[in-house]
Structure formats: C-alpha cells, structure tokens
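Colleagues,

Please find the record for the three-part complex below.
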Amino acid sequence: MAEGAPAIPGAADRLPGNGGAGAALRRFMSGRASGVLLIVVLLALWQISAEHWVKSENWPPLTAVGQAFLDGMRSGELPAVFGSSLYRMGIGFAIGAALAVVVGLLMATVRLVHRTLEPLVELLRPIPIPAIVPPLILLLGLDDKLKIFIVAFSTFFPVLVNTVQGVRAIDPVPLAVARTFRHSRARTLVRVVLPASLPYILAGLRISLALALIVTVVAEMIAGSAGIGYYIVTMQYAMRAPDMYAAVFVLAAIGYALNRAFLAAERRLLHWYRTDRSA
Amino acid sequence: MIDRLARGAAERAPGAALILALLAAIEAAVRAGAVNVALVPAPTRIAERLGEIIASGAFAAPLAATLWLLFSAYFAASALAVGLGLLMGRYRAVDNLFEPLIELLRPLPKPALLPPLILFLGLGAPMKLVIVGLAVFFPVVINTVQGVRGVDPVLIDTARTFGHGQRNILLKVILPSALPFILAGMRVSLALGLILAVIAEMLAGTGGLGYLVLDMQRSFKVTDMYAWLVLLAVLGYALNAGFNRVERRAAHWALAQPT
Amino acid sequence: MTLTRRRFTAAAAAGAALPLLATRAHAQAVKLRVSTIPIIDTAGMQVALAKGFFKDEGLEIDTTPTAGGAAGLPALAAGQVQIAFSNIISTVLAEKQNLGFQIISGGSATSDAPPDLAGLVTKPGAGLKTGKDFEGKSIAVNTRNNIIWLYARAWVKKTGGDPDKVTYLEVPFPQMIDAVRGGRGDAAFVVEPFFSAGRAANAVELVAWPYNSTQKRIPVAQFVASKAFIAANAGTIEKFVRAYNKGVDWMNANKGSDEWAGIIAGYTRLKPEQIKSIGLPLFDKTVDPKGIDETVALMRDHKMIEGPVDTKAMLYKTAVTAVK
C-alpha cells in the first residue's frame, strides 16, 4: 500500500442536488469553521501572552508581526524572497519527481533494476540533508544549483517509494496480459502501468511537495544567501523577530495553498481515472 | 537456512555490485588527484577510520543517544497521530476542527520553530522530542485519515448491524483495514524522524551521531565526518529493514482479521 | 538586499543552470566571489562595496552571504568562491588539516579594554562572579569548539575555576537571553545585539568580559584565500585588500554617522538606532601574528589542536603590512 493514499472524492459529491460552486463554498465554510476558530483562538492566545505573560524578544505580539508583514509586502521584499525560494523549489521538485517516476516505474517492473538499485536507494534515503551539505558545496557551490539538487534529492525518494508501491498494487491481470506482448514493454509501461499507479504517484507527489518546501527553506538557512530560509535566519540574528514570524506565517500560508491546489488537481486527474476505469 | 541465505545473497548481488563499483570509482578519482582529497577522502581511508571507531567502541554512546531521541519521539508521536487520525477520519467534526491547523503547521520547517520552542520548552529533551515528534506526527496522521476514509463502508455498516459499538468498530474494523496506509505513513515518518533527530542534534546538540558529523565538519576532520556519516546511513538502512520485517508481520495480522 | 533581487531576476531569465552573477560588462573588471557573513564584522568590506572602492580598483565583487561561517571555507577549498570571511578558529583548524589557506587581510578584533563585542551575563542577582563560582553550573555558548566556547573556558580558568567542571550548553545567540531568563542556563556568553538588548531589558546583568580579560585585541576573523589563488593572482589580492583597507579607514573615520549606520543596517538588517548603541568590534588592517599565537596556545590548552602551528606562514604579506 502506498504512503498517502489517493484523495478520495467526498461521497457527498456524488449525491444528487449537491452541485454548484456556491453550495460547495458554503459547505466548505460551515465545515471548516471550527478549525478556523481553533486557529483564531490560538492566535489570540499568542497576542495576549506576548503582551502580558511572556517577556521575550522572540515572542513579539501578533500585532507587531502583522505590521512587519505589511511592511515586508509593501516594500516588495517578502514577495521577492518567496518568489526566489519557490522558483528554486519548483525546479528541484520537477527534476526529482520526474526522475523518481521514471526510476520507480523501471524498478517496479524490471526485477533486475530493482535488485541493483534498491540497496543504494535504501542507503541514501536516510541521510539527513544538513550532513551532506559540505560535500555538496564542494561539488555544487553555494548557488541555486546546490539548493535545487538538495530539493531534488529529497523529493526523489518519497515519490520513488510511492511509484514502486503504486505499481505493485496494480491488479496483476492487465499486467500479465500486457506482458504476453513482450515486445511492447515500453508501451505497457506508459499505457497500462503509469495510469494505473497514478493515484499512488500523485499521493507521493503531494507529500514530496510539502517536503520540497521545507527542504528548500532549511537548505537556505544553512547555505544562505537568498530566499525565505536565509531571510528567516537573518531576521533572527538582526533581532527582528516580528519580521521572522511574518515570513513563517507566509510560509505556512503558501504551504497550505500549494497543498490545496495540488489536491484539487489530483481530484481532477483521478476523477477522469475513476470514470475511465469503471467504464 | 543456508539455502535462504544463498538466495538472499544472490538477491543482493547486483545492488552490492553497484555500490562497490561507485566506491571504486571514487577511490580511483582520489588516487588520480582528480578531486581535492582534503574534502573527498579516499573510501579506503574512510573505511579505516570507520573500523577504528567501531573497534574502539566510540560509536556506542552517540548511537544510543540518537536512537533514544528517535524512538521516544517516534512512538509517542505515532501513537498520538494514529489516535487523532482515527478520530479525524471517522468523525467529520473532528476533522473539521483539526485539519486546517494541521495543514498550516505541516509546511513549516522545524528549525523555524526553534525560537518559540526553546523559549517555552528550554534546551533539553522535551524540546528535541517535540521537534522530532512534529516531523513524525504529520505523515502518520494524514495517512491514517486516508486509510480510515478508504475503509469499505459496507464493512462498517455490517459491523453496526451486528450491534458493535463505536469503539469496537474503530479498533476492530477500521484500524485493521486502515493499517496498510498507517504503516506506509509510519515508514515515511521513521525516515523523517531520523533526519529531524540528526538536525536537532546539530542545532541544539549534546552528543549523538548528527552532532558528531557536524563537529567533525567544523574541525575539518573530513575523514571522520564521512565515517560517522556512513554509520548514520547504515543506521537508516537497518531501521528500514527492521521496519519491513515488522510491516510484514503486521500485514499478516491485518489480513487475518475476521471481516 | 539589492543583490538578492538582481540575482533572482537574472536567474529567472537564465533558467536552471546558474552561472555566477556576471552581467555587468566591464571588459577589464576582474570578478571575485567573496563569501561573507551578514554581521558587523564584515562592515569594512560592505562599506568598500557601497562607496565603490572595489570598483575603483577594477574589481567586481559578488558577495555570497551565508548565515553561518561554516559554509564559507569548504566553498573556498573547492574554488567556488575565491575569498572567504572566516573566523580565526576555523582558519587554524583548516591550517592543521593542510587545506592550503592564507589570511590576506586584517579583520575584526575584540577590544583592548571593556566594553567588548560580547559579554558574560547571568540573571540579575545570581551572584556568580568568578570561574570558581561557575563550577557545576552551565554557560550558554552558541556552538562548542569555537571561539566563544574557547574564551569562556579561558576566562573560567583565568578566574580560578576548572573549565572542565562547567557545562557548556549549545544555544543559538538569538535564544541565549531567553535561556538565561528562563533558568535553562546559568549564564550566557552572548554577542551583540542580543547582549545590549538583554541588559537594556534588565533580563540579564553583566558578569565579565571573557574576551578582553583574557587576551587583548583577539584577531577574531579575517579574509582568507587559497595559497594557489594568491600565487596566481597576487595583483588582484593586493587590489582587494587595498580597497578593503580604504573601507576600514572610512569606517573608523565615520563611526556613528548616519551614513555609516545606514550601510551596516542595509546588509545586517539591524535597525540603525541599534547599531549606534551596541558594542562594536575593532577593525584592523593587519593581523598581529602574536595575537594568533596566543589564540593557538589557548586552542592547544583546551585540547582543540595538538602540535605546532606556523602562524607566520598563515599570513600573506597583505595581512602583515597594510596595503596602501
């Protein structure tokens, strides 16, 4: 079974009389209201504690954070900083994911490939990113190349694992049927295996996306020079905690938005996949 | 038994061959002077140093420290995550309450949370456990929710018709059905947990493998750094292999559950 | 942060493979990549950049800031940057491993007399005054085996305590005041601006100045390059150091002015008012080998290194005699 199973469209979507964007929005709002309320309560706690109970440079009132956010947006610095991180992340993610799907498909369908690569993959997978930064700096410098590689490296493994497990979870019958036509192995891969394991691949991609954002930021914290991670560390050392927290909030918002967007895209793709399959 | 070992060895042969080939290539490059030996030492030198570390027993204390941090956080956070995930997957209201918060917290890199964590939890074990626990928590809770949602509603209805209470349904029907997903999440979390344990050691360290890797790097003792890094990689490998074994057992058990 | 924005735009246009930022077209300008840290210690170079001293020498400097110093020297060894700003401890350790670096300029130094750029603080009224008092207690340092840790130990020893009986907690500087205030550590050896901020808020009180009470004018950090690069580019190095020295001169002459504060605020992100009120390092144009010798002796005392270090060989001529 794959990590992070495919998003299953809500059963309610299938009931008659529940259509329309307006209705969906209303449902969303009333649905998530309690969750939003929880967040609001926690934020209020933050504000109150910063004003009355906790006296620390590192726990500024939320209002100061809000002000820093506005200043950062107005000066254009926050958007620029986030844009540069997202750019690096996007490229690293695309490279890592594409490689992982290709390698994963091969590993899952060709036994020899699996036996050859699996130990190496299992050995490389748990190595923590900060530990490999110094040798990577030697090879790739301090530039975007380094960050992109690090993101690709960390994106690779979850997507790979999911791809392999997704293929393994496929109903063996169509695969066996396809295998009798040995000469169209590539065709089998693209026409049968890939679409069939799509739900799992997509789930892996979604997890990797969140991971890619985190890794991008951590890489920037360590090997500096631009982006959100560097901004966060610099603001901390400049004793500008409100600016730091403002960036952290934006980071959370972006992560949330990315996840939602991906879920929506996933639902679209899988809806097609499901209707196609059930036909 | 020998037969199984022989088969196991044959299984691993191509994989081992690849790794050896890569190491040989690096060794050759170092000997030929193609890479700066101060930053990429010869694999044979690293192996030597690794041997020294193992023979002298110097690896024991750091290994224990890392393992303690990892396992404590791993099991505590996983238990919490499975519990919450079961509830969130089953009851829409619980999901509504926690999902936005979880989705907002998930993309935050843990080092960014260090300032408030140190402020409120100090520098000791609780702070490090929370950093590692946070990393472990999210994949497991998300996967649990997915797993619970994927349970065939017919199973649940059948159980209800037989008069089983909510708790029984959760534990005897839903949990086993969702187990494959949960385990997939716990597999990811194990890897993530190790990574965060190492990061925690590097950022607020007091011993442990991650701390040593960083310390050696800072003193430019590059050979030592790689030796400890290899230990770390082997640990990760061993943890994953151990997990596979446990997963196979659990899958057996899950399949054996009466449905 | 102009460089950041400019680099971002250039990179966005260029695509995945990113060469050095080198779009400005001086045919004769020599391009140098310098790894720096966004702290006050590198102010001399930042001033030289802002006032165009490097350009006057025909140099185009691409600064690569890293949040911590640890990334600079490996990049230097790999030739990814040509010059790196490095603290003396790292430089000595690199020398011990024969990485082939040399100090090419003066840099930042601690004071001859109080105040200083870092101090030892405790909770108000804690009553810990000498090294002996600290036995069995804890001192927060940012990382172990670095200059802060070394001089904390040296101070404990000098004031009658056994440094091995003190616990050294690793705490990032921004969290040190919180750690002491919250009782997580008994004391902290903390740098600016956290030091002044903590005292101003009455969260901590000053106990001692571990730096200048153990060694006057410690050469804390300097610019470093590889011997190979220096040998092949002696002229460029000289130009770099000359421009840098001009920056240092300007800085020393204009300390406290708004323009001075503005430049420093620009790259450190500190607030200008803050910069004017904190303890500053001394900026030197040369390095005294005797100062390094003393630090090396301490490193040996506290088991960071073994054996001799040829400090004279670590210094390139531009670091010994000020380039005019």
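Residues 1-18 of chain A have pLDDT under 50 and may be disordered.

Comments are welcome before we finalize the supplementary table.
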